[in-house]
## 1
Amino acid sequence: MRTKVLMVCLGNICRSPLAEGILKSKVDPHLVFVDSAGTGGYHIGEKPDPRSIAIARQYGLDISYQRCRKFVREDFDNFDIIYAMDKSNYENILRLADTSDKVKKLKLLLEEVNLETKEVPDPYYGGDKGFEHVFQMISAACEAISARIHKHEK
Ligand code: 4NP
């Protein structure tokens, strides 16, 4: 059965669209389904932020087809793993988890790697430079996720 992974940030226009695009580039689509969503509803229906589209393109990934959507309760039923980009996103999603099984599905993305921080910083109000940093952090975590999922499936 396909593992279904949902990447979640606040706006679903900067970090989680990158996480969706990066993880998709590292996994077999027959084995892993990847989507993303935001806890806030400010940009529903919009494309990712142009700075996220640009940094992804620099690394050969096209994320411009993605459209922003809001996280919904049903995502707990439709996904196996839900990765929050930061603790604030984590807390917001946790509030919607009404069973222990749902709570177990929720993780911080950077729990997957040994970096100094467990949070992907919000680059929205920063300059372009933040997007490179965010891209590298997310890539490292997605590499670890991909290795684990594929090892498990073999
Ligand atoms: P994201 O960044 O959570 O990485 O998509 C943000 C995008 C938009 C907003 C906040 C964060 N906003 O407030 O509109």
## 2
Amino acid sequence: MHNIHIDNSFTDALPQDPITENYTRQVTGTAYSLAQPVEFKKSQVIHVSKLARELGFTDEEVQSLAFKNVVTGREFPDGVAPYAMVYAGHQFGNWAGQLGDGRAINLFEMVHNDQRWALQLKGAGPTPYSRNGDGFAVLRSSIREHLCSEAMHHLGVPTTRSLSLSLSGQQVLRDMLYDGHAAHEKGAIVCRVAPSFIRFGNFELAAAQGNTDVLKQLTDYTIKTFYSQITTTGKEAYLQFFKEVTDRTLEMIIHWQRIGFVHGVMNTDNMSILGLTIDYGPYGWLEPYDHGWTPNTTDRQNKRYRYGAQPEIGLWNLLQLANALYELIDDGPALEKILNSYKENYQTKHLDMMRSKMGLSRPQENDRELIATLEHHLQLHETDMTIFFRELAQVDPQMDTDKAFLHISMAFYDLENLSEPHQWSWLEWLESYLKRLQKEQDESGLDGIAFAKAKQQQMNAVNPKYVFRNYIAQLIIDDADKGDYTLLNEVYRMLQRPYDEQPEFDKWYDLRPDWARTKVGCSMLSCSS
Ligand code: AMP
Ligand code: MG
């Protein structure tokens, strides 16, 4: 294998737990504990993503035993000492205390083309932070994490990445619906990759333990390594850091809202300090546009993490981070000001994002109203979010409302039963949209054809055609459980170009089929993974 440039900045900078045995425990004054992956004798790599190339691995190297050994945790380059990070978190709004990498084992950090990458195995066995868990992961959740991380990357959303998906060769016992019906499933290991896996929860733990030294070391390390544009020191630097994390978090959530991604478990231990989408569990994609939707059955009662609440939860989570950093900053009003900037920026960024989804690049006073009415209509009658916006791109000011309606009608789940009043209100909305487009065209100075083309191009660059719908994931999982990875490979190819027209994949550009409406794994997902 090529000479991997290993540079373990996290373990070099932060205090290691002096206990080196791997048993469940509470720790203080430390940032990580050593933990070795289980030696899986029969592990088997089943998919390697294109990320391998970005890390500098050639196709030949990817086929090598050395590569396979690394991504399944069997063998590492010299001097590598795998470890688990410790963190805490607020789960579903409540303080959960110490959590930590319960089934993620960090291998090493490498630098390639000036980019730092940490490699981490998820599902490779227990760590001191496994609590009651076994440290393993099942194939279904690993497929979902592997493919979705890469899909999100290609959608232009900040995210942790996935290098490979492997079978561990072991069976794992899971009670998928938490209803007393535990069953054995195939175990799997994902090799996740990100500049860093530090979460809000790492800071929360140090703060909750009153460990200002560790808190300071962790914050200084994060700034120096990942926010090096911050050149001030002390309180100023910490405030600037918090502001940058706030901006990145908002940026990420605006992307989620744009593509209809619902994370499902926005606990503070699942919030990356780099503003990356992290920990793909019971996530889902909006099919019928519905602000109240969450794919996570564990959250069915309160729907805390529903689509429409994600921006607000982002802010709540940042407030927890502010509390954790308070000890270093000691300036409530300054922190509050930053939190308020999130609210203000959200308003403008969300508006801009919605405008871009509708092909409006020249802001007008009443856009807010046009958008609010649209969101209202979208929720009255089941309308597929992805299809709606993609089809809306074909609507241009030269059309009459009936023709425009024909375009968007593909997005309705039950067109036959669309009531007359609903249809009228759609026609009414389309009329105002067409008028708005005419204004846009007039201001652009383009002729009808050129305007329609430019608008469509611009909209298609922000409204994906192919997203990783839950039912598609489930079909892949059903096949993979039987050892057939054809569909996995096919969908992975599609997900690399989500904004391009790919006629060969048009069967995936369709409404969610009826059978998937209530099927476990498609409309209902639990945290069991
Ligand atoms: P999650 O809901 O996946 O974000 O996990 C919350 C916490 O539970 C994290 O500390 C995980 O490491 C831990 N955890 C989840 N599943 C397992 C498992 N099977 N074994 C050990 N720890 C786990
Ligand atoms: Mg997690």
